[in-house]
Specification:
The protein has a single domain, classed as Rossmann fold, CATH 3.40.50.150. It is globular. Helices cover 37% and strands 19% of the residues. The strands form 2 sheets. It has an 8-stranded mixed beta sheet, with helices on both faces. The protein has 279 residues and is α/β, with parallel strands linked by helices. Its EC number is 2.1.1.266.
């Protein structure tokens, strides 16, 4: 229990996909002058040194962020994502990979705020130190699912909830679904972004079917797989987006083919943009 450490996987293909999507959502929140609230239920350590022993063990970043770092310009959505990563890398060399907290922090204006939850004791300590002097950021050492009940709806009335567990518990999907429904009941107008791993197509389809059955009016699923289907490995990942920003589906339909070409292994895998519910 609580054995997962993201430092071993920082900057891999799943991170690139997930954070590119988050950047598009966060950028859309800036379109209005009103403040927004960001909640990360499984925040991790905040950022990760790619020179660390953990990151160097499997060097997963080499088939993820490194393939984009020195590549061609790419679509605007890719450039926006790379700009957010460069905030943690002021010199040209890729030394750090920012987790979702650092990605989100780069979008906060003085009137915006975020709350970061992390249950793993060591990760929570690192995360607290990362944002110790930041008055716009609150770090909580607690189960992020509880925050969906305790912190929603926020005073700002607009913003994003990012739910990104490690899926190391056998009952993780049930806990996530129950917690999400509670959060959505409290804040039906908020944006929710829920990440999920893809190991086999049948499992992913069953997961999406459970969300489709909720009858939520604005529900978008996006996926990127870079390997052929094998049930014991991470072949790709997906994001379920509730109340996604206007035209996000079109943006992702344009950028995912480009991203798949850069990250796929010998043309394996694919991409998907599908509305599970649309008002």
């Amino acid at each position: 229990m609580l054995s997962y450490r993201h430092a071993f996987h920082a900057g891999n293909h799943a991170d690139v996909f997930k954070h590119l999507v988050l950047v598009q959502v966060l950028g859309a929140l800036l379109a209005k002058d009103k403040p927004f609230f960001y909640l990360d239920t499984h925040a991790g350590a905040g950022r990760y040194a790619l020179t660390s022993k953990a990151a160097q063990l499997h060097r997963e970043f080499e088939t993820g962020i490194a393939r984009l770092w020195h590549g061609d310009a790419g679509p605007p959505a890719v450039q926006a994502y790379l700009t957010a990563v460069r905030v943690s890398n002021p010199d040209p060399e890729l030394r750090w990979y920012p987790g979702s907290p650092r990605i989100a922090r780069s979008f906060l204006r003085p009137k915006d705020r975020m709350v970061l939850c992390e249950l793993h004791p060591q990760e929570a300590r690192v995360l607290a130190a990362e944002f110790a002097a930041d008055r716009q950021v609150r770090v909580l050492h607690q189960d992020g699912y509880q925050a969906l009940k305790a912190l929603l709806p926020p005073l700002e009335r607009r913003g994003l909830v990012h739910i990104d567990p490690a899926y190391e518990r056998k009952d993780e999907r049930r806990r996530l679904l129950d917690a999400f429904q509670e959060g959505y009941r409290r804040w039906a107008t908020g944006i929710f972004a829920l990440w999920y791993p893809i190991q086999d197509r049948a499992g992913a389809d069953a997961w999406l079917r459970r969300f489709r059955e909720l009858g939520i009016p604005r529900l978008l699923a996006v996926e990127l797989t870079v390997l052929a289907e094998l049930p014991w490995r991470l072949n790709g990942s997906g994001m379920i987006l509730v109340n996604p920003p206007w035209r996000l589906d079109q943006t992702l339909e344009e950028v995912l083919p480009w991203l798949w070409q850069r990250l796929a292994v010998e043309g394996q895998g694919g991409y998907r943009v599908e509305w599970l519910g649309r008002a």
